[in-house]
Amino acid sequence: MAIITDEPEQEPQQQNQRHQEEQPKQKQISQTKEPKQHTNPFLFWCYLVLFVSLITLLFISFTPQDNNPRSWFLSLDSALRHHYSNGRIIKVQTSPKRSPIELFTFQKGVDSTESVFIIHGLGLSSFAFREMINSLRSKKVNVIAVDLPGNGFSDRSTMEFEERSDGAFQRFKDVYGLIQEKGFFWAFDQIVETGQIPYEEIMKARVLERKSVKIIELGSNEVGRVLGQVIDTFNLAPVHLVLHDSALSMSANWVAENPGLVKSLTLLDTGIKPALPLFALNLLLIRDFVLGSSFGYQWLIRFCCMKKVGSFDVEGNRVLLKGRDRCRAVSEMGRKLNNSFDMAEWGSSEGIKGIPMQILWSSVWSKEWSEEGSQVADALPQAKFVGHSGGRWPQVDSADELAKHIADFVSSLPKTVRQVEEEPIPEHIQKMFDEASSSGHNHDHHHSHSGHDNHEGHAHAAGYMDAYGLGHTWGQ
Question: What is the pTM of this model?
Protein backbone atom coordinates (compact mmCIF):
# COMPACT_ATOMS: atom_id res chain seq x y z
CA MET A 1 0.00 0.00 0.00
CA ALA A 2 1.52 3.26 -1.13
CA ILE A 3 1.58 6.22 1.13
CA ILE A 4 1.02 9.49 -0.64
CA THR A 5 2.14 12.61 1.11
CA ASP A 6 1.43 16.07 -0.08
CA GLU A 7 4.30 18.57 0.07
CA PRO A 8 3.36 21.92 1.37
CA GLU A 9 3.21 24.52 -1.35
CA GLN A 10 5.81 27.29 -1.18
CA GLU A 11 4.57 30.74 -0.80
CA PRO A 12 5.07 33.20 -3.69
CA GLN A 13 7.23 35.49 -1.53
CA GLN A 14 9.75 32.74 -0.79
CA GLN A 15 10.03 31.84 -4.47
CA ASN A 16 10.69 35.44 -5.44
CA GLN A 17 13.36 35.79 -2.77
CA ARG A 18 15.17 32.59 -3.90
CA HIS A 19 15.04 33.76 -7.53
CA GLN A 20 16.63 37.07 -6.57
CA GLU A 21 19.43 35.25 -4.68
CA GLU A 22 20.24 33.00 -7.65
CA GLN A 23 20.53 35.86 -10.14
CA PRO A 24 23.75 37.40 -8.59
CA LYS A 25 25.39 33.94 -8.53
CA GLN A 26 24.66 33.42 -12.22
CA LYS A 27 26.10 36.86 -12.99
CA GLN A 28 29.30 36.00 -11.08
CA ILE A 29 29.67 32.71 -12.97
CA SER A 30 29.17 34.43 -16.29
CA GLN A 31 31.70 37.10 -15.35
CA THR A 32 34.35 34.51 -14.45
CA LYS A 33 33.82 32.58 -17.69
CA GLU A 34 33.81 35.58 -19.95
CA PRO A 35 37.63 36.25 -20.01
CA LYS A 36 38.35 32.63 -21.05
CA GLN A 37 36.17 33.01 -24.11
CA HIS A 38 38.21 36.04 -25.33
CA THR A 39 41.86 34.73 -25.16
CA ASN A 40 44.55 36.63 -27.09
CA PRO A 41 45.75 34.50 -30.10
CA PHE A 42 48.94 36.60 -30.43
CA LEU A 43 50.50 34.96 -27.35
CA PHE A 44 49.87 31.48 -28.71
CA TRP A 45 51.55 32.22 -32.05
CA CYS A 46 54.40 34.03 -30.33
CA TYR A 47 55.16 31.02 -28.14
CA LEU A 48 54.82 28.67 -31.11
CA VAL A 49 57.28 30.66 -33.27
CA LEU A 50 59.74 30.89 -30.38
CA PHE A 51 59.57 27.16 -29.75
CA VAL A 52 60.04 26.25 -33.42
CA SER A 53 62.96 28.70 -33.75
CA LEU A 54 64.69 27.19 -30.71
CA ILE A 55 64.26 23.63 -32.02
CA THR A 56 65.59 24.68 -35.43
CA LEU A 57 68.62 26.37 -33.87
CA LEU A 58 69.45 23.31 -31.80
CA PHE A 59 69.01 21.04 -34.81
CA ILE A 60 71.35 23.14 -36.95
CA SER A 61 73.91 23.38 -34.15
CA PHE A 62 74.07 19.66 -33.46
CA THR A 63 73.93 18.60 -37.10
CA PRO A 64 77.44 17.74 -38.30
CA GLN A 65 78.52 19.98 -41.15
CA ASP A 66 81.31 19.68 -43.70
CA ASN A 67 81.74 15.97 -43.00
CA ASN A 68 82.76 15.33 -46.59
CA PRO A 69 86.48 16.18 -46.78
CA ARG A 70 86.40 16.75 -50.54
CA SER A 71 83.51 19.23 -50.46
CA TRP A 72 85.04 20.97 -47.46
CA PHE A 73 88.40 21.37 -49.19
CA LEU A 74 86.86 22.63 -52.43
CA SER A 75 84.93 25.26 -50.48
CA LEU A 76 88.15 26.88 -49.19
CA ASP A 77 89.43 30.11 -50.68
CA SER A 78 92.59 30.36 -52.77
CA ALA A 79 94.82 31.49 -49.89
CA LEU A 80 94.06 28.37 -47.85
CA ARG A 81 94.46 26.04 -50.83
CA HIS A 82 97.75 27.70 -51.73
CA HIS A 83 99.01 27.27 -48.17
CA TYR A 84 98.04 23.62 -48.23
CA SER A 85 99.66 22.97 -51.61
CA ASN A 86 102.98 24.33 -50.26
CA GLY A 87 102.93 22.05 -47.22
CA ARG A 88 103.69 18.45 -46.53
CA ILE A 89 101.86 15.65 -44.74
CA ILE A 90 103.63 13.20 -42.45
CA LYS A 91 102.34 10.32 -40.36
CA VAL A 92 102.55 10.50 -36.58
CA GLN A 93 101.17 8.35 -33.79
CA THR A 94 99.94 9.89 -30.57
CA SER A 95 99.22 6.62 -28.75
CA PRO A 96 100.02 2.91 -29.27
CA LYS A 97 96.31 2.04 -29.24
CA ARG A 98 95.45 4.62 -31.90
CA SER A 99 96.00 4.46 -35.61
CA PRO A 100 98.52 6.88 -37.16
CA ILE A 101 97.18 10.31 -38.01
CA GLU A 102 98.12 12.73 -40.77
CA LEU A 103 99.91 15.86 -39.61
CA PHE A 104 100.23 18.94 -41.82
CA THR A 105 103.66 20.60 -41.83
CA PHE A 106 104.68 23.86 -43.48
CA GLN A 107 108.37 24.41 -44.18
CA LYS A 108 110.38 27.23 -45.71
CA GLY A 109 113.84 25.84 -46.16
CA VAL A 110 117.10 27.67 -46.86
CA ASP A 111 120.73 26.60 -46.89
CA SER A 112 121.26 26.96 -43.15
CA THR A 113 122.22 24.71 -40.29
CA GLU A 114 119.85 26.56 -37.94
CA SER A 115 116.22 25.39 -37.88
CA VAL A 116 113.35 27.13 -36.10
CA PHE A 117 110.34 25.02 -35.13
CA ILE A 118 107.13 27.02 -34.44
CA ILE A 119 104.32 25.55 -32.30
CA HIS A 120 101.04 27.46 -32.43
CA GLY A 121 98.68 28.12 -29.54
CA LEU A 122 95.03 27.29 -28.95
CA GLY A 123 92.71 28.10 -31.87
CA LEU A 124 95.47 28.74 -34.43
CA SER A 125 97.41 26.85 -37.08
CA SER A 126 100.47 27.28 -39.27
CA PHE A 127 98.34 29.39 -41.64
CA ALA A 128 98.34 32.26 -39.13
CA PHE A 129 102.18 32.24 -38.99
CA ARG A 130 102.92 32.33 -42.71
CA GLU A 131 103.96 36.02 -42.74
CA MET A 132 106.31 35.46 -39.84
CA ILE A 133 107.69 32.32 -41.54
CA ASN A 134 108.38 34.23 -44.78
CA SER A 135 110.12 36.97 -42.82
CA LEU A 136 112.33 34.45 -41.02
CA ARG A 137 113.22 32.80 -44.30
CA SER A 138 114.34 36.15 -45.72
CA LYS A 139 116.76 36.32 -42.78
CA LYS A 140 118.37 33.03 -43.84
CA VAL A 141 116.72 30.85 -41.20
CA ASN A 142 115.22 27.47 -41.96
CA VAL A 143 111.66 27.43 -40.57
CA ILE A 144 109.06 24.72 -40.06
CA ALA A 145 105.60 24.96 -38.51
CA VAL A 146 102.93 22.33 -37.93
CA ASP A 147 99.20 22.10 -37.46
CA LEU A 148 98.81 20.18 -34.23
CA PRO A 149 96.38 17.24 -34.43
CA GLY A 150 92.81 18.53 -34.49
CA ASN A 151 93.89 21.89 -35.91
CA GLY A 152 94.23 23.34 -39.39
CA PHE A 153 94.76 20.73 -42.09
CA SER A 154 95.78 17.94 -39.71
CA ASP A 155 93.45 15.09 -38.82
CA ARG A 156 90.77 16.01 -36.32
CA SER A 157 89.77 12.40 -35.50
CA THR A 158 91.50 9.09 -34.96
CA MET A 159 90.65 5.41 -35.04
CA GLU A 160 90.72 3.80 -31.61
CA PHE A 161 90.37 0.22 -30.42
CA GLU A 162 88.08 -0.33 -27.46
CA GLU A 163 87.41 -3.40 -25.38
CA ARG A 164 83.80 -4.44 -25.08
CA SER A 165 81.70 -6.83 -23.03
CA ASP A 166 80.94 -10.40 -24.07
CA GLY A 167 77.35 -10.56 -22.90
CA ALA A 168 74.29 -12.03 -24.59
CA PHE A 169 73.16 -8.66 -25.90
CA GLN A 170 76.56 -8.05 -27.48
CA ARG A 171 76.46 -11.48 -29.15
CA PHE A 172 73.04 -10.77 -30.58
CA LYS A 173 74.28 -7.38 -31.80
CA ASP A 174 77.26 -8.98 -33.53
CA VAL A 175 75.11 -11.53 -35.33
CA TYR A 176 72.59 -8.88 -36.29
CA GLY A 177 75.36 -6.68 -37.71
CA LEU A 178 76.72 -9.64 -39.68
CA ILE A 179 73.26 -10.31 -41.15
CA GLN A 180 72.95 -6.64 -42.11
CA GLU A 181 76.31 -6.83 -43.87
CA LYS A 182 75.90 -10.23 -45.59
CA GLY A 183 72.16 -10.27 -46.17
CA PHE A 184 69.17 -11.93 -44.53
CA PHE A 185 69.48 -15.26 -46.40
CA TRP A 186 73.25 -15.47 -46.12
CA ALA A 187 73.27 -17.89 -43.18
CA PHE A 188 70.60 -20.06 -44.81
CA ASP A 189 72.61 -20.26 -48.04
CA GLN A 190 75.71 -21.23 -46.07
CA ILE A 191 73.81 -24.03 -44.33
CA VAL A 192 72.50 -25.35 -47.67
CA GLU A 193 75.95 -25.26 -49.30
CA THR A 194 78.09 -26.55 -46.45
CA GLY A 195 75.56 -28.37 -44.32
CA GLN A 196 76.59 -26.53 -41.17
CA ILE A 197 76.13 -23.17 -39.47
CA PRO A 198 78.89 -20.64 -40.42
CA TYR A 199 80.44 -20.47 -36.97
CA GLU A 200 83.79 -19.16 -38.21
CA GLU A 201 82.29 -16.09 -39.88
CA ILE A 202 80.26 -15.32 -36.80
CA MET A 203 83.28 -15.64 -34.51
CA LYS A 204 85.36 -13.39 -36.77
CA ALA A 205 82.72 -10.73 -36.42
CA ARG A 206 82.72 -11.16 -32.65
CA VAL A 207 86.16 -9.78 -31.83
CA LEU A 208 86.59 -8.46 -28.33
CA GLU A 209 88.03 -5.20 -29.67
CA ARG A 210 86.15 -2.81 -31.87
CA LYS A 211 87.19 0.19 -33.91
CA SER A 212 85.64 3.59 -33.29
CA VAL A 213 86.28 7.05 -34.71
CA LYS A 214 86.77 9.68 -32.01
CA ILE A 215 87.61 13.36 -31.94
CA ILE A 216 91.27 13.86 -31.03
CA GLU A 217 91.74 14.88 -27.40
CA LEU A 218 95.28 16.20 -27.29
CA GLY A 219 97.10 16.36 -23.95
CA SER A 220 100.68 17.22 -23.03
CA ASN A 221 101.88 13.63 -23.50
CA GLU A 222 100.42 13.43 -27.00
CA VAL A 223 101.88 16.82 -27.96
CA GLY A 224 105.31 15.65 -26.78
CA ARG A 225 105.13 12.52 -28.93
CA VAL A 226 104.14 14.61 -31.95
CA LEU A 227 107.05 17.05 -31.47
CA GLY A 228 109.55 14.23 -31.13
CA GLN A 229 108.36 12.51 -34.30
CA VAL A 230 108.40 15.74 -36.32
CA ILE A 231 111.98 16.49 -35.20
CA ASP A 232 113.07 12.96 -36.12
CA THR A 233 111.31 13.06 -39.50
CA PHE A 234 112.92 16.33 -40.61
CA ASN A 235 116.23 15.75 -38.80
CA LEU A 236 115.92 19.06 -36.93
CA ALA A 237 117.75 18.26 -33.70
CA PRO A 238 118.99 20.36 -32.06
CA VAL A 239 116.21 22.79 -32.96
CA HIS A 240 115.33 26.35 -31.95
CA LEU A 241 111.83 25.97 -30.50
CA VAL A 242 109.30 28.84 -30.64
CA LEU A 243 106.28 28.30 -28.37
CA HIS A 244 103.29 30.61 -28.73
CA ASP A 245 100.48 31.17 -26.22
CA SER A 246 99.23 27.85 -24.74
CA ALA A 247 101.91 25.80 -26.55
CA LEU A 248 104.19 26.17 -23.51
CA SER A 249 101.87 24.40 -21.08
CA MET A 250 101.25 21.68 -23.70
CA SER A 251 104.94 20.95 -24.37
CA ALA A 252 106.76 22.05 -21.18
CA ASN A 253 107.17 18.50 -19.83
CA TRP A 254 108.53 17.20 -23.13
CA VAL A 255 111.09 20.03 -23.33
CA ALA A 256 112.30 19.32 -19.79
CA GLU A 257 112.64 15.61 -20.58
CA ASN A 258 114.42 16.11 -23.94
CA PRO A 259 116.87 19.00 -23.50
CA GLY A 260 119.28 17.45 -25.99
CA LEU A 261 116.81 17.99 -28.84
CA VAL A 262 116.28 21.70 -28.07
CA LYS A 263 119.03 24.24 -28.71
CA SER A 264 117.07 27.34 -27.65
CA LEU A 265 113.61 28.39 -26.49
CA THR A 266 111.60 31.45 -27.50
CA LEU A 267 108.44 32.02 -25.48
CA LEU A 268 105.99 34.17 -27.41
CA ASP A 269 103.34 35.62 -25.05
CA THR A 270 103.00 32.27 -23.28
CA GLY A 271 100.54 32.93 -20.47
CA ILE A 272 98.94 30.40 -18.16
CA LYS A 273 95.56 30.90 -19.84
CA PRO A 274 95.23 31.03 -23.63
CA ALA A 275 94.30 34.26 -25.36
CA LEU A 276 91.25 32.65 -27.02
CA PRO A 277 88.66 32.11 -24.24
CA LEU A 278 87.35 28.58 -23.99
CA PHE A 279 83.79 29.67 -23.25
CA ALA A 280 83.58 30.97 -26.83
CA LEU A 281 84.01 27.38 -28.04
CA ASN A 282 82.06 25.52 -25.35
CA LEU A 283 78.83 27.52 -25.05
CA LEU A 284 76.43 26.73 -27.86
CA LEU A 285 74.97 30.14 -28.69
CA ILE A 286 78.26 32.01 -28.27
CA ARG A 287 80.08 29.47 -30.43
CA ASP A 288 77.49 29.82 -33.19
CA PHE A 289 77.78 33.61 -33.08
CA VAL A 290 81.60 33.61 -33.07
CA LEU A 291 82.17 30.98 -35.74
CA GLY A 292 79.01 31.57 -37.73
CA SER A 293 80.13 34.86 -39.30
CA SER A 294 83.29 36.83 -39.97
CA PHE A 295 81.91 39.71 -37.92
CA GLY A 296 81.53 37.60 -34.76
CA TYR A 297 84.95 36.01 -35.11
CA GLN A 298 86.62 39.34 -35.84
CA TRP A 299 84.94 40.88 -32.79
CA LEU A 300 86.30 38.09 -30.56
CA ILE A 301 89.84 38.36 -31.98
CA ARG A 302 89.86 42.12 -31.58
CA PHE A 303 88.64 41.85 -28.00
CA CYS A 304 90.88 39.00 -26.76
CA CYS A 305 93.86 38.48 -29.07
CA MET A 306 94.95 41.40 -31.25
CA LYS A 307 93.83 44.97 -31.83
CA LYS A 308 95.01 45.31 -35.44
CA VAL A 309 93.11 42.78 -37.51
CA GLY A 310 93.51 44.49 -40.88
CA SER A 311 96.27 42.18 -42.10
CA PHE A 312 94.85 39.14 -40.31
CA ASP A 313 93.01 36.69 -42.57
CA VAL A 314 89.90 36.51 -40.41
CA GLU A 315 87.87 34.40 -42.80
CA GLY A 316 90.62 31.85 -43.42
CA ASN A 317 91.32 31.26 -39.74
CA ARG A 318 87.61 31.13 -38.93
CA VAL A 319 86.98 28.49 -41.61
CA LEU A 320 89.87 26.33 -40.38
CA LEU A 321 88.64 26.54 -36.80
CA LYS A 322 85.02 25.81 -37.67
CA GLY A 323 85.36 23.21 -40.41
CA ARG A 324 84.87 19.48 -39.89
CA ASP A 325 84.54 19.40 -36.08
CA ARG A 326 87.92 21.05 -35.46
CA CYS A 327 86.25 23.36 -32.94
CA ARG A 328 85.48 20.32 -30.77
CA ALA A 329 89.08 19.11 -30.98
CA VAL A 330 90.40 22.55 -29.99
CA SER A 331 87.92 22.69 -27.13
CA GLU A 332 89.07 19.30 -25.82
CA MET A 333 92.67 20.45 -26.11
CA GLY A 334 91.83 23.49 -24.00
CA ARG A 335 90.23 21.34 -21.29
CA LYS A 336 93.45 19.34 -20.96
CA LEU A 337 95.70 22.35 -20.46
CA ASN A 338 97.71 22.31 -17.26
CA ASN A 339 96.20 25.27 -15.40
CA SER A 340 98.41 24.58 -12.36
CA PHE A 341 101.61 24.93 -14.38
CA ASP A 342 104.37 26.46 -12.24
CA MET A 343 106.67 28.57 -14.40
CA ALA A 344 109.35 29.04 -11.72
CA GLU A 345 109.50 25.34 -10.85
CA TRP A 346 109.75 24.40 -14.52
CA GLY A 347 112.46 26.99 -15.22
CA SER A 348 114.59 25.78 -12.32
CA SER A 349 114.47 22.12 -13.35
CA GLU A 350 117.70 20.46 -14.49
CA GLY A 351 116.52 19.98 -18.05
CA ILE A 352 115.70 23.67 -18.58
CA LYS A 353 118.62 25.38 -16.84
CA GLY A 354 121.08 24.84 -19.65
CA ILE A 355 118.78 25.87 -22.54
CA PRO A 356 119.23 29.47 -23.85
CA MET A 357 115.91 31.23 -23.60
CA GLN A 358 114.24 34.50 -24.58
CA ILE A 359 110.80 35.89 -23.81
CA LEU A 360 108.93 37.99 -26.40
CA TRP A 361 106.06 39.77 -24.66
CA SER A 362 103.53 42.38 -25.72
CA SER A 363 104.17 45.69 -24.01
CA VAL A 364 101.07 47.47 -25.36
CA TRP A 365 98.21 45.01 -24.92
CA SER A 366 97.13 45.86 -21.38
CA LYS A 367 98.50 46.77 -18.00
CA GLU A 368 97.51 43.39 -16.56
CA TRP A 369 99.27 41.56 -19.39
CA SER A 370 102.44 43.59 -18.88
CA GLU A 371 102.37 42.70 -15.18
CA GLU A 372 102.01 39.02 -16.05
CA GLY A 373 105.01 39.36 -18.36
CA SER A 374 107.04 40.77 -15.46
CA GLN A 375 106.05 37.76 -13.36
CA VAL A 376 107.18 35.39 -16.11
CA ALA A 377 110.50 37.24 -16.36
CA ASP A 378 110.99 36.93 -12.59
CA ALA A 379 110.19 33.20 -12.74
CA LEU A 380 112.74 32.70 -15.54
CA PRO A 381 115.68 34.93 -14.60
CA GLN A 382 118.00 33.18 -17.05
CA ALA A 383 115.82 34.25 -20.00
CA LYS A 384 116.28 37.37 -22.09
CA PHE A 385 113.14 39.53 -21.90
CA VAL A 386 112.13 41.59 -24.97
CA GLY A 387 108.96 43.64 -25.43
CA HIS A 388 107.17 43.95 -28.76
CA SER A 389 104.46 46.20 -30.17
CA GLY A 390 101.92 43.52 -31.10
CA GLY A 391 99.04 41.90 -29.24
CA ARG A 392 98.70 38.44 -27.78
CA TRP A 393 98.61 37.07 -31.33
CA PRO A 394 101.49 39.18 -32.68
CA GLN A 395 102.56 36.86 -35.50
CA VAL A 396 100.60 38.93 -38.05
CA ASP A 397 100.68 42.60 -37.08
CA SER A 398 104.30 42.37 -35.80
CA ALA A 399 105.65 39.56 -37.99
CA ASP A 400 108.82 41.37 -39.12
CA GLU A 401 109.57 42.60 -35.61
CA LEU A 402 109.27 39.12 -34.13
CA ALA A 403 111.28 37.56 -36.96
CA LYS A 404 114.11 40.00 -36.31
CA HIS A 405 114.20 39.21 -32.59
CA ILE A 406 114.18 35.45 -33.25
CA ALA A 407 116.82 35.63 -36.00
CA ASP A 408 119.10 37.82 -33.85
CA PHE A 409 118.72 35.44 -30.92
CA VAL A 410 119.48 32.39 -33.07
CA SER A 411 122.53 34.01 -34.69
CA SER A 412 123.92 35.00 -31.26
CA LEU A 413 124.28 31.33 -30.28
CA PRO A 414 127.09 29.01 -31.39
CA LYS A 415 126.46 27.56 -34.83
CA THR A 416 125.04 24.08 -35.07
CA VAL A 417 127.27 21.44 -36.63
CA ARG A 418 125.22 18.77 -38.37
CA GLN A 419 126.61 15.48 -39.55
CA VAL A 420 125.08 14.35 -42.80
CA GLU A 421 124.94 10.60 -42.99
CA GLU A 422 124.84 9.21 -46.51
CA GLU A 423 122.64 6.22 -47.07
CA PRO A 424 124.63 3.13 -48.12
CA ILE A 425 124.12 1.92 -51.66
CA PRO A 426 122.06 -1.29 -51.69
CA GLU A 427 124.06 -4.46 -52.23
CA HIS A 428 122.41 -5.43 -55.52
CA ILE A 429 123.00 -1.93 -56.93
CA GLN A 430 126.65 -2.01 -55.87
CA LYS A 431 127.00 -5.41 -57.55
CA MET A 432 125.69 -3.96 -60.80
CA PHE A 433 128.22 -1.11 -60.57
CA ASP A 434 131.06 -3.57 -60.03
CA GLU A 435 129.98 -5.69 -62.99
CA ALA A 436 129.72 -2.63 -65.23
CA SER A 437 133.19 -1.46 -64.19
CA SER A 438 134.75 -4.86 -64.79
CA SER A 439 133.17 -5.14 -68.25
CA GLY A 440 134.58 -1.79 -69.29
CA HIS A 441 131.30 0.07 -69.43
CA ASN A 442 131.83 3.51 -68.05
CA HIS A 443 128.54 5.08 -67.21
CA ASP A 444 127.90 8.01 -65.02
CA HIS A 445 125.44 7.15 -62.30
CA HIS A 446 124.07 9.93 -60.19
CA HIS A 447 122.19 8.83 -57.10
CA SER A 448 120.81 11.22 -54.58
CA HIS A 449 119.63 9.65 -51.35
CA SER A 450 119.57 12.74 -49.24
CA GLY A 451 117.22 15.63 -49.59
CA HIS A 452 114.02 13.65 -49.22
CA ASP A 453 113.35 15.18 -45.85
CA ASN A 454 113.76 18.86 -46.65
CA HIS A 455 111.25 19.63 -49.35
CA GLU A 456 109.99 23.13 -49.78
CA GLY A 457 106.71 23.51 -51.52
CA HIS A 458 105.13 20.64 -53.38
CA ALA A 459 106.28 17.76 -51.20
CA HIS A 460 103.39 15.64 -50.03
CA ALA A 461 103.30 12.27 -48.41
CA ALA A 462 101.37 9.72 -50.36
CA GLY A 463 97.74 9.54 -49.51
CA TYR A 464 96.70 12.87 -48.04
CA MET A 465 95.67 14.58 -51.24
CA ASP A 466 93.87 11.39 -52.09
CA ALA A 467 91.93 11.83 -48.84
CA TYR A 468 90.36 14.86 -50.50
CA GLY A 469 90.12 13.03 -53.81
CA LEU A 470 92.01 15.78 -55.64
CA GLY A 471 95.26 14.15 -56.74
CA HIS A 472 98.79 15.38 -56.03
CA THR A 473 98.80 18.31 -58.44
CA TRP A 474 96.03 20.35 -56.89
CA GLY A 475 96.94 23.97 -56.40
CA GLN A 476 100.36 23.65 -58.00
Answer: 0.69
